[in-house]
Specification:
two-stranded antiparallel ribbon, single chain, mainly alpha, elongated, 211 residues
């Protein structure tokens, strides 16, 4: 019968093995910390770079941007089926605020309850999307009609272009497209993105991470 030799360790050897293992773990932890810190530093540097104050030339270029314009043709729903042409262009702040407020007051409070319908819309077959789109947009009807009436008739020059006229002559999907066009004409998304990035940049300038 073979005899199995069992190696025994002195206390000194055990301590040395434990210390070696501890050193290995410590080295791994330090390596991970250094890598994490490097990634954080690179992210902060990237954010700061994006928020570098624009040069005088860049500011002048922004100020010289042309006004965006979109032409929309609306065919009336009466017997005459006349075609009316409207130009969507950048609105002054007072009208811009009025336009946004109409959407916020009536749409945002109902948004939570519509998330389920939105999920169904995104996941549905293309054949069902039109039906679901109308169902999804139905609660927005009043708000959209009011907003579109402001867009098409911002200075109340067309006395008949009211929310009721919009609802009677323009489909929900076309109303939505008109709202999207106005958002782009006023560059709202760009404005709020710049404000957000600037705020983040100011915050990052005061951040100090402990290494």
């Amino acid at each position: 019968m073979d005899e199995t030799t069992v190696k025994t360790f002195t206390q000194e050897e055990v301590n040395r093995l434990l210390q070696d293992e501890k050193d290995r773990v410590d080295k791994t932890v330090r390596s991970l910390q250094e890598e994490n810190q490097r990634m954080i530093d690179e992210t902060i540097a990237e954010i700061r770079a994006k928020n570098t104050p624009p040069s005088k030339e860049e500011i002048q270029t922004l100020l010289e941007q042309e006004y965006a314009e979109f032409v929309v043709k609306v065919r009336t729903a009466d017997k005459e089926r006349k075609e009316r042409v409207f130009t969507i262009t950048e609105l002054p702040q007072a009208l811009e605020t009025k336009f946004i407020t109409k959407l916020q007051d009536k749409v945002l409070p109902r948004m939570k309850g519509l998330l389920g319908e939105l999920k169904s819309l995104l996941e549905s077959d293309i054949d069902k999307q039109a039906e679901l789109l109308v169902k999804f947009l139905e609660p927005f009807a009043d708000a959209m009609a009011e907003a579109v009436s402001i867009i098409l008739n911002p200075y109340d020059e067309e006395k008949d272009v009211t929310p009721e006229w919009v609802s009677a002559n323009i489909s929900s999907s076309r109303q939505w497209n008109i709202i999207v066009a106005q958002e782009r004409a006023n560059k709202m998304r760009d404005f709020f993105s710049q404000v957000s990035l600037a705020s983040i940049g100011e915050t990052m300038r005061g951040v100090r991470f402990q290494k």
